[in-house]
TrEMBL record:
UniProt-listed CDD domains: TerD_like
Signal sequence, renumbered to the chain: none
Residue ranges, compositional bias (Pro residues): 186-217
Organism encoding this protein: Streptomyces chengmaiensis
Domain TerD: 2-168
Name of protein: TerD family protein
Region described as Disordered: spans on this chain: 174-221
Source organism, top-level taxon: Bacteria
Family, as annotated: Belongs to the CAPAB/TerDEXZ family.
Length: 434
């Protein structure tokens, strides 16, 4: 039976699993569970906040176990070992946040407390009055006379996870002004032709020097980055300006893996067009500068770009595994005023003839803003090239648009030229090699 708001009940189990549940579907925001360990009503440090990007408390008492969506039901789990909660911790607040919408758009929102050993439901609270809130405290585990109890809370925050976190003493990561960049050394003379509005791919330009290593991670006292932006078909774009991510280096990562299961007619298509060895995907970027120059950054033709001179985009290397590193490309947002638009795309160089057998994920990580990520989704056509994301400088805003657009080249037309035609870049192309 569902509890009323404000009601409480004893928790007889020593180890519990807290489940955040909702009905997923089109137009429903992504929902994340989190937990805050409180002493005297506040966290002792940012380490007392447990969520997807900081999934385990140092005491081992609270652990974020991950999210699943099965049969239209969304489920995010937090495990709590009440025996290991430190004596000074009085409450474990159980919260949720919504990305891409409010909780008024999330049907069937509830929280359940289960006995980890038996699976028996010990407490349940169904939220029924959410409207514009983007963060919610649904319940809390608290000590009373040496025992643990659960209280149904139902308190919402229209200011999102940041408002919830700061209310309990978390230091929220704020955008910072970039440090002045050191003047780069003068580039060595290059035999590459001078850029033109419609350049050809250079046959063998000298590879530019590698970009400087990213700064070392901050100490453990650094503020926790709370926000995450997930682009979907229903919410396909985000303003980097509003996110505070318009300076420093923005890392673009593409990772992938082969699908392991095949079903129905799609299985026949995948088996017909894909092989499973020596898979090589190439992350690329078409760019247009504000002075009219256009070009491409890609491994093909050794056109790796440059970070501190035009085009202010650099391709790190060529990965053939799609593992944890994947393919990485960096955009220097300190020169965003010189960029009119950048189209990030990926081609299959060898090892498969289509994306139909691949799961691919894209993450854009600005140096000073929230990460932006999205999945490509399933490809059901024989496509060897996919437009991933379009970054547009409108003059007053820097916008990332999720494309996830699988393209099919015409006979005799290269994947690169296919992307050019689809987005009206208007470049001239010649064959290139790695």
């Amino acid at each position: 039976m569902s509890m009323l708001k404000g009601a409480n009940t004893p928790v007889p189990a020593q180890q519990v699993r807290v489940e955040l549940c909702w009905r997923a579907g089109p137009g429903v925001p992504d929902v994340d569970a989190s937990a805050l360990l409180l002493a005297s009503g506040k966290v002792r440090s940012d380490a007392d906040f447990v969520f997807c990007d900081q999934p385990s408390h140092s005491s081992g008492a609270v652990r974020h176990e991950g999210k699943t969506t099965t049969g239209g039901e969304g489920l995010d789990r937090v495990a709590v070992d009440l025996r290991r909660v430190e004596p000074e911790i009085e409450r474990v607040v159980l919260a949720a946040s919504a990305d891409g919408g409010s909780f008024g758009q999330v049907p069937g929102l509830c929280i359940r407390v289960l006995d980890s050993a038996s699976g028996a439901e010990l407490a349940r609270y169904d939220s029924q009055d959410a409207t514009v809130e983007t963060a919610f405290v649904l319940g809390e585990l608290y000590r009373r006379q040496g025992a643990w109890k659960f209280r149904a809370v139902g308190q919402g925050y229209s200011s999102g996870r940041e408002g919830l976190a700061t209310d309990f003493g978390i230091t929220v990561d704020e955008p910072q002004a970039p440090a002045p960049a050191a003047a780069p050394s003068a580039p060595a003379p290059s035999s590459a032709p001078a850029p033109s509005p419609t350049p050809v791919i250079p046959a063998a330009p000298a590879a530019p020097p590698a970009p400087p290593a990213p700064p070392a991670p901050a100490a453990s006292t650094a503020p926790v980055r709370l926000t995450k932006v997930t682009l979907t078909k229903d919410a396909p774009s985000v303003s980097l300006t509003k996110q505070g991510g318009i300076s420093g280096a923005m890392r673009v990562n593409l990772s992938w893996q082969m699908r392991k299961q095949f079903r129905g007619w799609a299985a026949k298509l995948r088996r017909a067009v894909a092989t499973h060895s020596d898979l090589d995907l190439d992350l690329c970027a078409l760019y247009e500068l504000t002075d009219g120059r256009k070009g491409v950054v890609q491994a093909l033709g050794n056109a790796f770009g440059a970070l501190h001179r035009p085009p202010y985009i650099h391709l790190d290397g060529d990965d053939r595994t799609g593992g944890s590193a994947g393919e990485n490309l960096t955009v220097n947002l300190d020169h965003k005023d010189k960029l009119r638009r950048v189209l990030i795309f990926v081609t299959i160089y060898e090892g498969a003839r289509s994306f139909a057998d691949l799961d691919a994920h894209v993450t854009l990580q600005p140096q000073h803003g929230a990460p932006v990520d999205f999945s490509l989704g399933e490809c059901a056509v024989p496509s060897p090239v996919c437009a991933l994301a379009l970054i547009t400088n409108t003059g007053s805003d820097l916008v990332v648009q999720r494309e996830a657009r699988f393209l099919i080249p015409e006979r005799g037309v290269s994947p690169q030229r296919t992307v050019d035609y689809a987005y009206g870049w208007g470049m001239s192309w010649t064959p290139g090699r790695k």
